[in-house]
């Protein structure tokens, strides 16, 4: 069975078990499609060795439906086993990054406002109050 593990950094780890029977297995071909329309991705027509059991798709785009198919390659005259396919969608990372950035900026602004308020209070208390020992006019 072919399994797609979507990682937090936006990459996808594909893992699979060898087909039964494994005799005559020469390798695998990995093909991708995007929303049903064939397009070129880093994993387009990748040839993998017979001992390979996983593949890392380093940069998957968010909010895109992927369909990846793994086709076992066998030595003739044996018929090729059917391709195993998996579909998945990667969470858009941009939104998560925007929320983290906005939270960081908001926290920084709050800290700056606290420092400004403390500075104004210090100036008002120590520099703007009348001198205690000044003589009074009569």
UniProtKB/TrEMBL annotation:
Entry-linked InterPro entries: Fndc10 (IPR034446)
Membrane-spanning intervals of the chain: 98-123
N-terminal signal peptide: none
Keyword Membrane (UniProt): yes
Record carries keyword Lipoprotein: no
Keywords for the protein's UniProt record, in alphabetical order: Membrane, Transmembrane, Transmembrane helix
A Pfam family matched in the record: Fndc10
Protein name, as recorded: FND10 protein
């Amino acid at each position: 069975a072919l399994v797609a593990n979507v990682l937090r950094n936006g990459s996808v780890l594909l893992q699979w078990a060898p087909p039964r029977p494994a005799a005559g297995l020469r390798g695998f071909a990995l093909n991708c499609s995007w929303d049903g329309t064939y397009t070129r991705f880093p994993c387009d027509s990748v040839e993998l060795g017979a001992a390979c059991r996983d593949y890392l798709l380093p940069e998957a785009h968010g909010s895109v439906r992927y369909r990846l198919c793994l086709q076992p390659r066998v030595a003739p005259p044996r018929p090729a086993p059917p391709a195993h396919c998996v579909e998945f969608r990667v969470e858009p990372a941009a939104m998560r990054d925007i929320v983290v950035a906005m939270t960081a900026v908001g926290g920084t602004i709050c800290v700056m406002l606290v420092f400004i308020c403390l500075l104004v209070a210090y100036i008002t208390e120590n520099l703007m109050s009348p001198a205690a020992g000044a003589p009074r006019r009569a």
